[in-house]
Specification:
CATH class: Mainly Beta
Number of strands: 8
CATH topology: Jelly Rolls
Number of helices: 2
Helix content: under 10%
CATH architecture: Sandwich
Mean pLDDT: 82
Largest sheet: 4 strands, antiparallel
Strand content: 35-45%
Length: 146
């Protein structure tokens, strides 16, 4: 037996604690146009598994109210299935940070405000973990996850 067959090759994976303890790879996008209520939510996918995500509704607080839905699945964010409104809502100027191990987030306007759309900025800290390591594309809104 050759020596090349006697060793294991390790790579970072979804359970690699060190990936979530060390500093993350920065990800930032601003002025994201968020689709209107009644249309399909925008899925913003990350190139790696996130360590944390911050979403901000960038509409100024003095402007007409344009609340923003944030969720982790199309069904949960759209609220298209009765009893499955699994999202959080950010008002003008409000932001939220969560330590979520996700590969994407979904955004949608929360009200039909005369055609006025919302806008968001997203900051994420990414790990070196491949998105395929998570084993699924997104969380299921039909299972009660946003």
């Amino acid at each position: 037996m050759s020596h090349s067959q006697n060793y294991l090759v390790y790579k970072s994976g979804v359970s690699s604690v060190g990936q979530y303890q060390m500093s993350s790879i920065p990800y930032l996008t601003s002025s994201v146009s968020v689709p209107a209520l009644g249309t399909s939510p925008l899925q913003l996918s990350f190139p790696r598994v996130a360590k944390f995500v911050t979403i901000r509704n960038v509409i100024p607080t003095a402007s007409a109210a344009r609340p923003l839905r944030v969720g982790f699945s199309l069904i949960g964010t759209s609220g298209s299935v009765a009893g499955r409104q699994n999202y959080l809502t950010l008002t003008n100027g409000e932001s939220y940070t969560g330590e979520w191990r996700v590969t994407s987030v979904f955004l949608l306007c929360d009200t039909d405000n005369g055609g006025l759309l919302s806008s968001a900025s997203i900051i994420a800290g990414l790990t070196s973990v491949s998105t395929s390591s998570l084993g699924f594309d997104n969380w299921s809104g039909s299972l009660g996850v946003g």
